[in-house]
From TrEMBL:
<keyword id="KW-0963">Cytoplasm</keyword>
<dbReference type="GO" id="GO:0005737">
    <property type="term" value="C:cytoplasm"/>
</dbReference>
<comment type="function">
    <text>Catalyzes the phosphorylation of the 3'-hydroxyl group of dephosphocoenzyme A to form coenzyme A.</text>
</comment>
<dbReference type="GO" id="GO:0005524">
    <property type="term" value="F:ATP binding"/>
</dbReference>
<dbReference type="InterPro" id="IPR001977">
    <property type="entry name" value="Depp_CoAkinase"/>
</dbReference>
<dbReference type="Pfam" id="PF01121">
    <property type="entry name" value="CoaE"/>
</dbReference>
<keyword id="KW-0418">Kinase</keyword>
<comment type="similarity">
    <text>Belongs to the CoaE family.</text>
</comment>
<protein>
    <recommendedName>
        <fullName>Dephospho-CoA kinase</fullName>
        <ecNumber>2.7.1.24</ecNumber>
    </recommendedName>
</protein>
<keyword id="KW-0547">Nucleotide-binding</keyword>
<dbReference type="InterPro" id="IPR027417">
    <property type="entry name" value="P-loop_NTPase"/>
</dbReference>
<dbReference type="GO" id="GO:0015937">
    <property type="term" value="P:coenzyme A biosynthetic process"/>
</dbReference>
<dbReference type="GO" id="GO:0004140">
    <property type="term" value="F:dephospho-CoA kinase activity"/>
</dbReference>
<keyword id="KW-0808">Transferase</keyword>
<comment type="pathway">
    <text>Cofactor biosynthesis; coenzyme A biosynthesis; CoA from (R)-pantothenate: step 5/5.</text>
</comment>
<feature type="binding site">
    <location>
        <begin position="12"/>
        <end position="17"/>
    </location>
    <ligand>
        <name>ATP</name>
    </ligand>
</feature>
<keyword id="KW-0067">ATP-binding</keyword>
Length: 197
């Protein structure tokens, strides 16, 4: 029976880099963002409900979800963010929980759940421990701006709309500082994995 470790972290912390490295090392990783993409794919009931609630402006030319536009709308007010989560989150959690149950039945080393809003959605109940990926805010802003093409003000607004770093630090079992380069990050991940061998 596998142990399940949750990996979480705010925008620009490098949580996806940690998950990618774990996958390369052969560990199973359930990706909550990928599940969210699946449940909101073109033609899905979830996408239709989002369009009814937020308007057709959230759709791209092909009728799929324009994620950047959706994020801009959702992060523009707490009410809109809550509405988005009410529509999408329950479906994502149900699918995630089903995958976690399957992984627990398998023999093998640890498996991971990559979930940016692990605590906010209550999904930490699905895992045995939590690794929080963190980084200096200036590093986070630069990374997110480079990746998403958003303004610094927009990224800082997103950071403020997420659960505070302090609260996540208090709740996490392990903290992975990703303010430095990749080699330092990989060394920190390997040290944590050794604790579970």
């Amino acid at each position: 029976m596998r142990k399940i470790i949750g990996i979480t972290g705010g925008i620009g912390t490098g949580k996806s880099t940690v998950s990618a490295y774990l996958k390369e090392q052969g560990y199973p990783v359930v990706d909550a963002d990928q599940i969210a993409r699946k449940v909101t794919e073109k033609g899905s009931a979830t996408l239709a409900e989002l369009a009814r609630n937020f308007g057709s402006g959230i759709l791209d030319r092909d009728g799929g979800l324009d994620r950047r536009r959706m994020a801009e709308l959702a992060f523009s007010s707490p009410e809109k963010k809550a509405r988005l989560e009410a529509i999408v989150t329950s479906r994502v959690i149900a699918e995630t929980a089903a995958r976690i149950r399957e992984l627990r039945q398998e023999d093998g080393p640890v498996a991971f759940l990559d979930a940016p809003t692990l605590y906010e959605t209550g999904s930490d109940v699905l895992v045995d421990e939590v690794w929080l990926v963190t980084a200096d805010e200036s590093v986070r802003v630069r990374r997110a701006a480079d990746r998403d093409g958003c303004s610094e003000a927009e990224i800082r607004r997103r950071i403020r709309s997420q659960m505070s770093e302090e609260e996540k630090r208090c709740r996490a079992d392990y903290i992975i500082d990703n303010s430095d380069g990749l080699e330092q990050l990989y060394t920190r991940i390997r040290a944590l994995i050794k604790k579970h061998d």
